[in-house]
Design brief:
two-stranded antiparallel ribbon, alpha/beta, TIM Barrel, eight-stranded parallel β-sheet
Length: about 290
């Protein structure tokens, strides 16, 4: 097989209104949506009526949902797990309605999020929790993609490797985010990280950042080794999504914002890197 890439984007980085999100993505020839929120409401909290409205608007724009950008796992590791299990079950219902079986998750907040030296002691608990989520995913026909993120157990390359290998479930894969690694101080993230977690990567977030201050920049302008990432994906015959999560105006801990104009620049920057590396873009909804 030959590697091929389909673009998606976090639409709520464009606007709160779903129709505005989809209209711009259509204009940018981005055929998929990473659905994190609409109308100011997180994906897991949408009512049945809002889900049906979303389904209609997606169909009107001939757009498909590549991933549900859930906040599952962005919760204290000491809290009871039952709430997050219930959230995932609700997301499974929403996914069935929107014809999406992929859900982004995280690996839980340690008690002291500012002291990363304590994070290792929560790896086993995170693995246990992710295993419970993966069991629901297996039952519901979902694939969970675990995103590396600041201030959660799975922040660094080493801890992410421990988590995905510790759970070792076909229903838990890895969502690679170069910028988030860079913002944790990781250098040469692709050179170092690819041998560690590439066997588990099934989703890729396109976001870049500078080591010097953690500021977020367009793909290829930072220290996230995005060109090398694409070359590695090509070598591995990756066939899947590159999901733009630019965070160019606001890079918040619960989400980000880019705006319409900067989203266009982010898409063009990614396509420039794809051209440079020979990454083939296909206009596919899967």
């Amino acid at each position: 097989m030959t590697a091929s890439f389909t673009l998606s984007a976090f639409g709520d980085e464009i606007a709160s209104d779903l129709d505005e999100q989809l209209k711009l993505l259509s204009e940018l020839n981005v055929p998929n949506l990473d659905f994190r929120s609409a109308w100011g409401t997180n994906i897991k909290d949408l009512s049945d009526e809002q889900v049906q409205r979303a389904k209609q608007e997606l169909a009107a724009h001939n757009m498909h949902v590549a991933c549900l950008g859930s906040p599952v796992g962005k919760s204290p590791i000491e809290d009871p797990i039952e709430k997050e299990l219930a959230n995932l079950e609700r997301l499974a219902e929403i996914g069935r309605a929107l014809d999406c079986t992929r859900v982004r998750i995280f690996s839980f907040y340690p008690p002291n999020r500012e002291d990363t030296s304590t994070f290792d002691q929560y790896v086993d608990e995170s693995i246990e929790r992710l295993g419970k989520l993966s069991a629901i995913a297996a039952r519901e026909g979902l694939t969970l993609v675990l995103e590396n993120e600041k201030e959660v157990v799975g922040d660094t390359l080493a801890r992410c490797e421990k988590l995905v290998k510790g759970v070792n479930s076909p229903n838990l894969r890895f969502a690679w985010d170069s910028a988030n690694f860079v913002q944790c101080g990781e250098q040469h993230v692709v050179d170092r990280g690819w041998p560690m977690v590439s066997d588990y990567v099934s989703y890729v977030h396109i976001k870049d950042a500078l080591l010097i201050d953690g500021s977020v920049v367009v793909a290829g302008a930072g220290d996230g080794q995005v060109p090398q990432l694409l070359r590695n994906l090509i070598s591995d015959d990756y066939q899947g999504i590159l999901a733009l999560e630019p965070h160019l105006m606001i890079a918040g801990h619960s989400g980000g914002f880019t705006g319409a104009d900067l989203m266009g620049k982010a898409v063009q920057a990614l396509r420039d890197v794809m051209k440079e590396t020979g990454a083939k873009e296909v206009d596919s909804h899967r």
